[in-house]
Amino acid sequence: MKAVVLLSGGLDSATTLAIALSRSFSVTALSVDYGQRHRVELECATKLTQSMGVKDHRVVTLDLRAIGNSALTASIDVPKNRTSDEMQTGIPVTYVPARNTILLGVALGLAESIGAFDIFFGANAADFTGYPDCRPAFFTAFEQLANLATKAGVEGKGRFQIHTPLITMTKPEIIREGVKRGVDYSLTLSCYDPDEQGRACGVCDACLLRRNGFATAGVPDPTTYRD
Could you say which DSSP state residue 201 is in? Predict the structure, then answer.
């Protein structure tokens, strides 16, 4: 069976890739260069595919800086040192308008092109509150769309499925799962605002969740932080 795995180069997508491989899928990894300020994560994605034996890694360039209105694609400061309560309140400025809809759309096109009907995405419970396109209802709706809006779907050649294996897992649970499956987390980057050397800031939302995840999981954090 073939599958497309969206691979950002972060902790969650790396774990998702490992899970897809463990289920005996023939994986095509898809990374998207959308003009994100943390584009060094794309280098991590390449290293991950090499480490995990994935031979087909596609990188699509789609510059969302033309849309802007996000701290990840425009000149807007990335929030730092926020508390857990603050992270769970409202939609943060790191939300990229319709990003996951766009990324899944690209993944769907690739899947149809290569004859795959399974798409893996690394959304998880830590993202529910802040990001509307990380919630279970979104993925259910997109799966319905995928089967209505494609030639393969309407001709009955197969049924597209959106797999979100981390959707109910906490960050510590994800890390333990990845360790069990041999993921080298030193090859991943979660930071929204890394420096030119690719070192994580340590204090953005993503870094704080990552640091707490490793600490709670009881697993040494291999991340290089600039502080």
Answer: -
